[in-house]
Amino acid sequence: MARYTGPKSRIDRRFGEAILGKEKVLSKRNFAPGQHGNNRRRKTSEYGVMLAEKQKAKYTYGVLERQFRNLFEKAAKADGITGEVLLQLLESRLDNVVYRLGIAPTRRAARQLVGHKHITVDGAVVNIPSFQVKPGMVIAVREKSKSLEVIADALAGYNHSKCPWMEWDDASKSGKFLHRPDRADIQENIKEQLIVELYSK
Known about the structure:
5 strands
């Protein structure tokens, strides 16, 4: 299976950031995974730095290589700054939008909710995590899924103001995708220019 299903802490330690897990893992073991992780002090090449940034983006959004390259090619053809457009396309994926709305605690959980047909887009069930959400679309929890404990727990105390490009209606358990986010609003620590340079080689 191509998609990574191993320990989340291993990825966090590899990049030195809480990408998939929590900060407490890094506070205890802030070094690379593996038998010799604590002894590695090799200097990373320029290409290695760019490759690591791409890998970090892929792990963060749960996207495979072919999907990522297709999104990059789409971003390269679009108007605007390629790196920013790439991040906007990643943020517009249905699984990520579900996560940003607070319906799921993680992107992995959001992907599962979408795949199990708990999410609707403009009233119709969509079970494709990579579905590109467009401005004006309404993403909601399916009526028979509103009582799910995982959704209720995720929404409890979630701060929806963190994502100004979306608005949330708690009564109907639905959110409207107003527009693609500005780069300043995207919270992920990704240096998209390095990814652009990598694919430009």
